[in-house]
Amino acid sequence: MLDAALYGGETPAVVLTYAWDRLLVDPIPGPRGPANFTGLRPLTRSVQAVPADATPIAPAGSTLPRLAAELPQTFALIDPHHGAEGMVRQLEELVQHLEPDSIDLLDVGGDILAQGDEPTLRSPLADALTLAACCELNYPVRLLVAGPGLDGELPADALSSRMGPVALTLTAEHVQPVSSVLEWHPSEATAMLAAAARGARGLCEVRDAGLPVPLTDEGPVVHEVDLDETLNHNQLARAILATENLHEVEQHSREICGFSEIDYERNKASWLGSQPAQKLDPKAVLRQLDEFQTGAQGRGITHTTFRRLTEAFGLSGSQRQELRELLLNGRPEQYQAPLWHIPSEA
Prior knowledge:
Elements: H1 2-7, E1 14-17, H2 22-25, E2 37-38, E3 41-42, E4 48-49, E5 55-56, H3 64-70, E6 74-77, H4 83-98, E7 104-108, H5 125-136, E8 142-146, H6 156-159, E9 166-169, H7 172-175, H8 179-182, H9 188-197, E10 202-206, E11 211-215, E12 221-225, H10 227-233, H11 235-239, H12 246-257, H13 261-273, H14 282-298, E13 303-304, H15 306-312, H16 320-330, E14 335-336, E15 339-341
Parallel strand pairs: 1-6, 7-8, 10-13
Antiparallel strand pairs: 2-5, 3-4, 8-12, 9-12, 10-11, 13-15, 14-15
Helix pairs in contact: 4-5, 15-16
């Protein structure tokens, strides 16, 4: 979406990204590496592209092959298992191979700006690793933060003093190139970014914990942020600059942030594995929806995500799309793509 908006999409970008779909798509905790796929295509010695015909090796799951099939960009796989030093190596090889006009580091929500000890922080590891690697690269990198506060971690107010100039304000027209992807992709932050760009305003409830995220006029704004200042502020990113494996990164996260988000996924995956499979009963789901919406109205919630509904109803990630289709067929007027609208109390 940002590539098309900023650069016109004439020469589609190479998007270097994690295969880390959390537990909604991938039942295995943590990020996937090249060994978890078949059909990858070498770009450089350390960087593999994920083409449309690549396949995650079961039981792993990944949205990257389908993204590659539906979008013009090339998707390349970040491999965090060799720590920040391994990611620097990947970046250096890509720069040498591609000779890019520019490199943008994009974070949706702004938790890359965290210090590390904020009580609302939930997933600092992936951002800190990428920040550390980009700061070690001997090539200019522009840090962009889209939709401050939209990931439900650091509130937008806490980030406002760190924001630089506005690079872009996304509109409904900018969302159009990815609109079909938003119909199936589970990313909550991207869904809220797109909804805000389309004009949605209110309070959106997300994640298993039901975090309330404001949808405001700041939601579709993309800011430039100073990269070096962000590294100086981010304790975890500074601590992991010389790491050579993911275990070291996790240990630093436990020491600085008090937790590792992969530990959280391990615990959740273990709990999910002990739960009996639940069949999706349409009548029961609609009753659950009514109960959920009544409670949400009392909390001032105007929107939610299909991930939130899936987990609130006790369903598995694999049932998310089935739930979505059931709700859209039954109550299409409540769909404000790609979010679910909670009607106000009568």
